[in-house]
UniProtKB/TrEMBL annotation:
One of its GO terms (molecular function) is CoA-transferase activity. InterPro entries: CoA-transferase_III_domain, CoA-Trfase_fam_III, CoA-Trfase_III_dom3_sf, CoA-Trfase_III_dom_1_sf. It comes from Micromonospora marina. SUPFAM superfamilies: CoA-transferase family III (CaiB/BaiF). It comes from the Bacteria. This is Crotonobetainyl-CoA:carnitine CoA-transferase CaiB. Keywords: Transferase.
Length: 375
């Protein structure tokens, strides 16, 4: 193993997305992650299609650089091995329902009583108090936190995001919390309990919308692709499709107007400042659409990009990957013959590693059982 987290042993009792995403990030950075699976395996192994070589691509997306060990916690022998793994680990992460691991002696209090240096991370859907009984599925949280109320046309139904966004955000929060706890352990010698729940991550991840409510008493609502505070900040039709066009400040708006051949709009009192444009968005939009209709999206993208105006075509996922490749970001890495998206963290001295492909179920079971059997 190499990387800045070399020597950190992670006992990963999590499954599905938030926990496995967090532990993959840690594994990419050098941690030794032992993925503990029930005899049936991680649920995402069965989430198909799509597949690669008859393996779920959902599972492949978040499980590289790990070793798989199957343990049946209801079996006394396997439970002993689970305890030994927790006793030797630097980090234990789990996303069972709150309290579910207590009967196995793998809850925070039991595990840290045996291993005081253990950083114990718990991911739940709605916390361990009033929402302890609620399962933590991302779609539930998108609905409960208010994201769906913000997604879709103003006069249409609410929509979910196209990806399990709050699982990913919670995974990121868990990884940050674990790293903070490991740093704290360096000075204290003791671990601590890192708790992350999807609802709190969602409310934090809604940033300006939750901020508008709690700080400004505003009531955010669906606006289609428009932005409540910035105009323009949305897709606009051109001669052959739509182009996302953004004027994040007044200078960018002036440049946009010049490139589009309508410089007079930047001096119009209705549109001179962003607050003015926001108040008069319904008058501004058709004027911009009329100017954009003279050329196609590709031509406008090239010209606006050259002028420094934020804009983008609306790509497919394939086109997004191709764009990153064309920009020199090298988005795809291959680990043991399995392609995946590289870790987005760049480190100049100890970059992420890509040593182990996502493991087959219990692929490392014999090796790990032999190690855990030793005193």
């Amino acid at each position: 193993m190499s990387g800045p987290l070399r020597g950190v042993l992670v006992a990963d009792f999590s499954r599905i997305l938030a926990g496995p995403y967090a532990t993959m990030l840690l594994a990419d950075l050098g941690a030794d992650v032992v993925k503990v699976e029930a005899p049936g395996g991680d649920d995402t192994r069965g989430w198909r299609p799509p597949v690669r070589d008859d393996v779920s691509t959902y599972y492949l997306a978040v499980n590289r650089n790990k070793r798989s060990l199957v343990l049946d916690l209801t079996d006394p022998g396997d439970l002993t091995l689970a305890h030994r793994l927790a006793d030797r680990a630097d980090v234990l992460i789990q996303n069972f329902r709150p309290g579910a691991l207590r009967r196995f002696g793998l809850d925070h209090d039991s595990a840290t009583a045996r291993n005081a240096r253990l950083v114990y991370a718990s991911i739940s859907g709605f916390g361990d108090a009033g929402g302890a009984d609620l399962p933590g599925y991302d779609l539930m949280v998108q609905a409960a936190a208010g994201l769906m109320s913000l997604t879709g046309d103003a006069d249409g139904p609410p929509y979910k995001a196209g990806v399990a966004v709050f699982d990913v955000i919670a995974g990121l929060h868990a990884a940050v919390g674990i790293l903070a706890a490991l740093r704290h352990r360096e000075s204290t010698g003791r671990g601590q309990h890192v708790t992350v729940d999807l609802l709190s991550s969602a409310l934090s991840g809604l940033v300006n919308h939750t901020g508008a409510y709690v700080a400004g008493a505003a009531a955010p609502h669906r606006m289609g692709n428009a932005h409540p505070s910035i105009v323009p900040y949305e897709p606009l039709p051109t001669a052959d499709g739509e182009l996302v066009v953004i004027a994040g400040n007044d200078g960018q708006f002036r440049t946009l107007c010049r490139v589009l051949g309508v410089p007079e709009l930047a001096d119009d009192a209705r549109f001179r400042r962003n607050a003015d444009r926001t108040a008069h968005r319904d008058q501004l939009r058709p004027l911009l659409v009329a100017a954009l209709s003279r050329r196609g999206s590709g031509a406008w993208f090239a010209e606006l990009r050259a002028a420094g105006v934020p804009c983008s075509p609306i790509n497919s996922v394939a086109e997004g990957v191709a764009l990153a490749q064309g920009l020199g970001l090298d988005p795809v890495v291959t680990t043991g013959g399995v392609p995946g998206i590289r870790n987005p963290i760049g480190l100049s001295g100890a970059p992420p590693r890509y040593d182990l492909p996502p493991p087959e179920l219990d692929e490392h079971g014999a090796q790990l059982r032999a190690w855990l059997a030793t005193e």
